Structure to design on (559 residues):
């Protein structure tokens, strides 16, 4: 594993930052002031759902309890996403300082990093890093001499389940149960880990907080668009010359991003991972933003040579594998959708049946218990709609004629 | 299992419980340690964990059966996991799979006769910009060719 720290540059996340600075500054501010800055920044959660971070922290701060938790969601299981790995490997100071600031703001005593099992090789470096923080009193009792503020962070290792990235499944597994999502409400902000108020935040969200504390909410809001403030880390993979993590302002056009990463002859991009949307060439002028194509940052590029049905099959296999099986629409539905893809592959389908499956997909979007089943029909519907010429209507009669 | 082995395992599990605590929330970390050391969590180990955490053994099994990285049946001494998700697929995952299957004489999901390797598919390992990616135990390897993948297996003890 390559561990050399690459010199990265970017407007916000990859801008200059000195470890410990956000903690020092935050501890000189009141909790309300920090919440105001966050509100000004209009920061929304980077884990996918896009909930305003200031609101989440305000609600957790307001919840009455003598014990609260802050969880850093480092489960990063969405196919095509790897920016949290880069942050944890190369910028742990941003993430952990953000956690301490969060702990102070909401009144938590303990932070937990839920690290996906696939990133076990990061466990030791992260624990070593935390040890140094303890030595410098950036963690532990009365941090930097601040009376009544003590905060500890520990790292918890996941065990290979995509659904554990969902915040209530994550909490279930922290508690020693199967990682099955809970009904919401109640929300973790009042009934979370061990029944206590808990704020679950994505790695990148916490990294953004450290910069906002240092440079101010209005500085952050200058980047991006009105509804999508700041910048975003995009994890780019697939058919392009320069795959990797890119920090770009929200609101960037898909075509602009493709140019930056050196993508040629691009037919489609899957944005937001397997559970995201497949955008065809004709829509490359759309922008990445919460108000247009929202994303947790996964960008997978497909060039003209790719078989989109094969891509779809790969996604559906993923969901069949990863469905926790707790609710019927998702457990059965994904299997049915995968069977549909296999029928098309073999040319043994009818349009009537495919249309029924799309209906089933729409039912899953409504009736599934958690985001996994609610979004797993997205690629099925968007790929079959956007690439129907390739899949069904090609000159040879499409798959029917094969 | 011999009695001495049982005693050793019990002691080992007790040490994990001392480290992580006997609360149910320590369960996954304890299972993780056992899995890491023994490559599986035997029925006896499950009973010991259940006893020390004061929960029913079936609860322990139910958690093990949920997680892809935990298993109750023994696997090979080294676990090889090849990413099957689309970005690695596009960069030549199937070439790796075929080469490894040929070289080890087993199919994906199988274990070699000498018990040295179990090979499995994994979903996205978060290394998509450097695929195809493969993990051997807790180490990861990137931008592999079939030849390089086989060579890496050759270096494993
Ligand atoms: C199936 C599923 C998987 C998820 N995986 C992740 C993940 O790996 N990382 C993450 O931060 N959020 C993930 N989420 C979203 C979390 O539930 C939660 O919204 C998020 O961690 C909140 O943090 P944020 O407000 O900073 O975005 C997932 C959601 C679902 C439904
Ligand atoms: S939608 Fe799928 S993953 Fe979510 S609770 Fe239902 S079965 Fe489990
Ligand atoms: S697709 Fe293979 S590591 Fe992500």
């Amino acid at each position: 594993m390559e561990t050399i720290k690459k010199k990265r540059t970017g407007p916000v996340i990859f801008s200059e930052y000195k470890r410990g600075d956000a903690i020092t500054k935050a501890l000189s501010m009141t909790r309300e002031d920090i919440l105001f800055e966050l509100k000004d920044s209009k920061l929304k959660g980077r884990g996918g759902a896009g909930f305003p971070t200031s609101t989440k922290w305000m609600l957790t701060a307001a919840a009455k309890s003598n014990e609260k938790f802050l969880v850093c969601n480092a489960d990063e299981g969405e196919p095509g996403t790897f920016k949290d790995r880069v942050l944890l490997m190369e910028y742990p100071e941003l993430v952990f300082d953000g956690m301490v600031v969060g702990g102070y703001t909401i009144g938590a005593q303990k932070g937990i990093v839920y690290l996906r099992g696939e990133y076990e090789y990061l466990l030791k470096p992260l624990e070593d890093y935390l040890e140094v923080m303890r030595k410098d009193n950036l963690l532990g009792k009365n941090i930097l001499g601040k009376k009544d503020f003590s905060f500890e962070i520990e790292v918890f290792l996941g065990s290979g389940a995509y659904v554990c990235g969902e915040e209530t499944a994550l909490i279930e597994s922290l508690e020693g149960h199967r990682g099955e999502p809970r009904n919401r409400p109640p929300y973790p902000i009042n009934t979370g880990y061990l029944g206590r108020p808990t704020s679950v935040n994505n790695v990148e969200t916490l990294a953004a907080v450290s910069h906002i504390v240092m440079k101010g909410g209005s500085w952050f809001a200058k980047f991006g668009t009105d509804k999508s403030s700041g910048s975003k880390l995009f994890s780019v993979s697939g058919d392009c010359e320069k795959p990797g993590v890119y920090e770009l302002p929200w609101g960037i056009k898909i075509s602009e991003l493709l140019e930056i990463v050196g993508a040629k002859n691009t037919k489609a991009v899957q944005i937001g991972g397997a559970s995201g949307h497949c955008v065809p060439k004709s829509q490359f002028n759309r922008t990445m933003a919460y108000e247009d194509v929202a994303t947790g940052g996964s960008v997978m590029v497909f060039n003209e040579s790719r078989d989109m049905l094969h891509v779809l099959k790969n996604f559906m296999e993923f969901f069949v594998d990863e469905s926790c099986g707790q609710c019927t629409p998702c457990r059965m539905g994904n299997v049915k959708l995968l069977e549909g893809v296999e029928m098309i592959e073999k040319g043994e389908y009818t349009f009537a049946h495919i249309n029924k499956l799309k209906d089933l997909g729409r039912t899953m979007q409504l009736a599934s218990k958690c985001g996994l089943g609610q979004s797993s029909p997205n690629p099925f519907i968007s790929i079959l709609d956007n690439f129907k010429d390739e899949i069904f209507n090609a000159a040879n009669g499409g798959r029917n004629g094969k | 299992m011999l009695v001495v082995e049982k005693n050793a395992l019990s002691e080992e599990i007790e040490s994990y419980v001392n480290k992580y605590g006997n609360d149910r929330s320590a369960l996954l970390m304890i299972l993780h340690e056992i899995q890491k050391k023994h490559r599986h969590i035997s029925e006896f180990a499950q009973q010991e964990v259940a006893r020390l955490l004061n929960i029913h053994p079936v609860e322990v099994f139910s958690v093990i059966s949920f997680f892809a990285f935990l298993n109750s049946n023994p696997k090979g001494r080294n676990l090889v996991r090849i990413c099957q998700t689309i970005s690695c697929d596009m960069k030549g995952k199937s070439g790796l799979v075929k080469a490894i299957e040929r070289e080890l004489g087993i199919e994906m999901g199988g274990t070699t006769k000498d018990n040295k390797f179990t090979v499995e598919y994994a979903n996205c390992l978060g290394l998509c910009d450097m695929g195809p990616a493969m993990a051997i135990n807790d180490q990861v390897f990137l931008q592999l060719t079939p030849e390089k993948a086989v060579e890496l297996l050759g270096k494993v003890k």
